[in-house]
C-alpha cells in the first residue's frame, strides 16, 4: 500500500488500494462492512463474490485507512485495516444503474434529465469505518481521497433512509454537498427504503441544477 497525503504522525494512515491489494485484504474489508452496518456474522460470505466482481469494473478505485503495526510488539505484526471505500464508473449494464433509472422514470423524470444524471458518473459503492475508529472524520478523509481527480461529471451513491437524516453517513454526505436524486426508493429484493444522493465533480465545483 502507498500512503497518500498523510502526515508521518497521523494514525490511521489513508492509503490507496490497488485491485490486488484489495483482493488480498477482502476479508478484512468485509469484516469492517459487517461491523459498521450492524449485520449478522456470515453476511460477509454473501458479499464477497460481489465485491470481487466489482474490482474488475471500469474505473474501479479503492482507498483504505490502516493503523500501522507496532514492530516493538510482534516481529510479524501487520497494518490493521479500519476503514475502506471504493467505487467505479457507472454503466448502463450494471444492476444499480438500471434500478436507479427505473426509479427515476417512475417518479416522473424526463429521459433527458435522467441521461444528464446517468450518462457520466462515478458510483460510490461502499464506504465503511469500523465502529472503533468512528468519530474522527475518517470517512470524510477517505471519501475526499476517493473522489480526488475523478474524470466523471458527477458522483452518485445510495444510503439507507434514516429518521431526520440523523447518522454519521448522512451528515457526511450533506456536509460535502450531496443533494437528493431519489428518496424512499426500494431496490429489488430489499424492503428497506434508500435515498440516492449525488453531486457534481470535482468537489470544488458547486452543484448544478441538473443534479
TrEMBL record:
Entry-linked Gene3D superfamilies: 3.40.630.30
UniProt-listed Enzyme Commission number(s): 2.3.1.-
Domain N-acetyltransferase stretches: 116-202
Enzyme class label: transferase
Molecular-function GO terms, alphabetical: acyltransferase activity
Record-linked Pfam families: Acetyltransf_1
Sorted UniProt keywords: Acyltransferase, Transferase
Protein name: GNAT family N-acetyltransferase
Organism, as annotated: Rhodococcus tibetensis
